[in-house]
Amino acid sequence: MQLMREQESDKKLLSDRRGLFASLRRNIRSSTVLKAMERVPRELFLPACERPRAYLDIPLAIGEGQTISQPYIVALITEALRLQPADRVLEVGAGSGYQAAVLAELVPEGSVVTVELVRSLVERARDTLNDLRYKNVIVEDASEELGCPWRGPYDAIVVSAAAPSLAPTLVTQLAVGGRMVVPVGSRDQQQLVCVLRTGEGISLRMLGPCRFVPLIGREAFPSSI
Fold first, then answer.
1. Model pTM?
2. pLDDT tens, residue by residue, 143-184
């Protein structure tokens, strides 16, 4: 009986996975990004209780009040970064480590640095990424300063939490020609913004509305309202 339940669960997961990527292909143009996401087992970045829902196109709880982002949003963000194989990438807000794994798939000759404020999530993300043999990902504890300037500059930055405004500290960690995607707005509703740093300054492109957990710390939201 247990074996039958497991087989049924596996079948549903596979069916959901096929349905998810069929849906993503209708909205995401980059086949490179979608192939990278297909190589990452999203279920392994989730608590056991959420794994049956791994391939639904929704955000899911990972504990500590944090979430793993909706697959469509992950694809949209990653596509906007226009990553090259040797790029150096920073992620602010590692969470489960899933976004970092997708980024790592796209920069096999480069590196991904991902920082996280919640210690238990740091350990869990590091363990999962190590188990999956992502050798080009470094998981760091977040410091008082946003990002990880001592490992920069970066060709691309992903901010996986909502900021009240563009943080100058993160903009300065971008190399000239670098791209950053960040949710900007209130705690309850944000706009996904793609930032390009040029020799003259920055240019902005709006990608659409979104909703992320808040980024906490200097140049972000306070830890309590």
1. 0.92
2. 878 999 999 899 999 999 899 999 999 999 999 999 999 999
Q: How far apart are CA 83 and CA 86, in angstroms?
A: 8
Per-residue buried b or exposed e for 120-150, using 16+ beta carbons within 10 Å of the residue's own CB: ebbebbbebbeebebebbbbbebeebbbbee
Alpha helices in the chain (DSSP H): 2-25, 31-39, 71-81, 98-106, 119-131, 168-172
Tokens of 62: 């990972």
Angle between helix 71-81 and 31-39 (nearest 10): 130
Active site residue: 23, 69, 160, 223, which one?
69
- The residues, any chain, with a CB within 8 Å of residue 88's CB and separated by 6 or more, are 107, 110, 111, 113, 151, 152, 153, 154, 155, 156, 175
69 in active site? yes
